[in-house]
From TrEMBL:
Belongs to the NADH dehydrogenase family. GO terms for molecular function: NADH dehydrogenase (quinone) (non-electrogenic) activity. Residues 10-329 form the FAD/NAD(P)-binding domain. It comes from Neotamlana nanhaiensis. Keywords: FAD, Flavoprotein, Membrane, NAD, Oxidoreductase, Transit peptide, Transmembrane, Transmembrane helix. This is NADH:ubiquinone reductase (non-electrogenic). It catalyses: a quinone + NADH + H(+) = a quinol + NAD(+). Its EC number is 1.6.5.9. The chain crosses the membrane at residues 376-393. SUPFAM superfamilies: FAD/NAD(P)-binding domain. Residues 353-408 form the External alternative NADH-ubiquinone oxidoreductase-like C-terminal domain.
Length: 427
């Protein structure tokens, strides 16, 4: 991999997501050699992926080059590679571009979509975990409307304009809200020769409320907002299958839809070598102690979504969200330096900063520790927080300008089929 050997201990980080980047920044200008490996050469701001899928933002405004994050740090190396295996015995990672020995290893590989073993749904539905997947979804949505214009078969036309979102968590809710706004504000102008009132947006939720990780008040308000926007919410319904045409459920309900978005779960993106039952716990996550150490190792750590750190408040592990990932990455940066100097490490304490979701224009729900609020103010808070955590001044400016433009013009100009998508072809 062409990484020189130095007298500094080598820290290898797998993954340049929220956790990996937070950790790398902490190790900047310290007496360690840091090698960050990621299969993408950019960091993705996943909370705004749904805006790429729905033409509100261009993909480059929510991506940031990892090399640019590291460019002013001495002793830092980035390699664009997929880590295939971790050889824990020999303290080595094996990648598609070669092997690399480590003194300290941090697995920050995030999470993957969880289909709970249903391969039919995996093959036929759309996921929204990466920028290429969001671009696929954007293309499919737009292509479906183009096709709907051409068919005289009413059943087919309705299926092309039906959108089923499986999962009523923040991703499902935000996507549904954005699609409903497109239906209301953009489709009638773009497709005057199509009865776009027939377009249907459904959320299917297995539990008895949407946004189940948030307060009852937030769930109820989000449901009210979505219903006002014309989104159909089906609660206590579990999706059983999707053959590419029809969604079947555990009830009599079926949905004919060409677009099904699977937002019903994620699981830890584990890597061979650390994926044995001994290491893995609920949600396919690597169990770690309060110092982020993997069971049985002093020098192998996991942080972010892939790590399951159980605490008194979170007995099933910290939530798979950006804040735990950032905080764990930062704390591990400090702890690694302590460990190298043979000083005691500090146990991790999660500072819960709350949760939020937006449903659309002027509509959001925010649960902070002390305050819970919904509506216009919540929407401003949601926007501010997302702008604040985006990496890069340019990205912040571009997103801000886009949002102002979209707000004033009731528009989403990135509704472009740049890279046509054929269903059943997975990139
Ligand atoms: C659509 C969506 C919306 C979300 N909305 C919110 C939200 O509103 N608020 C919130 O707090 N959280 C949200 N999340 C969750 C949040 O994005 C994650 O919790 C967070 O990204 C976890 O950070 P991480 O560093 O653990 O992993 P990630 O940010 O996923 O980064 C993992 C990195 O590892 C790399 N990688 C993985 N495997 C390998 C390998 N084998 N070799 C090399 N590289 C590898 C990946 O390319 C990636 O860059 C959302 C997630 C999604 C998908």
């Amino acid at each position: 991999m062409n990484i020189p050997k130095t007298s500094f201990p080598r820290v290898v980080i797998i993954g340049g997501g929220f956790a990996g980047v937070a950790l790398a920044k902490k190790l900047a200008k310290q007496e360690v050699q840091v090698v960050l490996i990621d299969k993408h050469n950019y960091h993705t701001f996943q909370p705004l992926l749904y805006q790429v899928s729905t033409g509100g933002l261009e993909p480059d405004s929510i991506a940031y080059p990892i090399r640019k994050v590291l460019q002013n740090f001495p002793n830092f190396y980035f390699r664009l590679a997929n880590v295939d295996e971790i050889d824990v015995e020999n303290e080595r990672v094996k990648t598609n571009i070669g092997d690399l020995d480590f003194d300290y290893l941090v697995v920050a590989s995030g999470s993957a979509t969880n289909y709970f073993g249903n391969t039919e749904i995996e093959k036929n539905s759309m996921a929204m975990k990466t920028i290429p997947q969001s671009l696929n979804l954007r293309s499919l949505i737009l292509e479906n409307f183009e096709d709907a214009l051409l068919t005289s078969d009413l059943h087919e036309r309705n299926a092309l304009m039906n959108f089923v979102i499986v999962g009523g968590g923040p991703t499902g809710v935000e996507l549904a809200g954005a699609l409903a706004e497109i239906k209301k504000g953009i489709l009638p102008k773009d497709y005057p020769d199509l009865d776009t009132r027939m377009a249907q947006i459904h959320i299917i939720q297995s539990g008895d409320r949407i946004l189940k990780g948030m307060s009852d008040k937030a769930s109820q308000k989000a449901e009210d907002f979505l219903e006002k926007l014309g989104v159909n919410i089906w609660k206590n319904v579990r999706v059983k299958g999707y053959d590419g045409k029809t969604v079947t459920t555990n009830t009599d309900l079926t949905f004919n839809a060409e677009t099904v978005v699977w937002a019903a779960g994620v699981k830890g993106e584990t890597i061979k070598g650390l994926d044995a039952e001994d290491f893995i716990t609920r949600g396919n996550r690597i169990e770690v102690n309060q110092f982020s150490q993997v069971k049985g190792f002093n020098n192998i750590f996991a942080v972010g979504d892939v790590a399951c750190m159980k605490t008194e408040d979170f007995p099933n592990g910290l939530p798979m969200m950006a804040q735990p990932a950032i905080q764990q990455g930062e704390q591990l940066g400090d702890n690694l330096l302590e460990l190298i100097e043979e000083k005691p490490m500090k146990p991790f304490e999660y500072k819960d900063k709350g949760a939020m979701a937006t449903i659309g224009r002027n509509k959001a729900v925010v649960d902070l520790k002390r305050f819970k609020f919904q509506g216009v103010f919540a929407w401003y808070v949601w926007m501010f927080v997302h702008l604040f955590f985006l990496i890069g001044f340019r990205n912040r400016m571009v997103v801000f300008v886009n949002w102002v433009y979209n707000y004033i013009r009731f528009d989403r100009e990135a509704r472009l089929i740049i890279r046509p998508f054929k269903k059943n072809f997975k990139s």
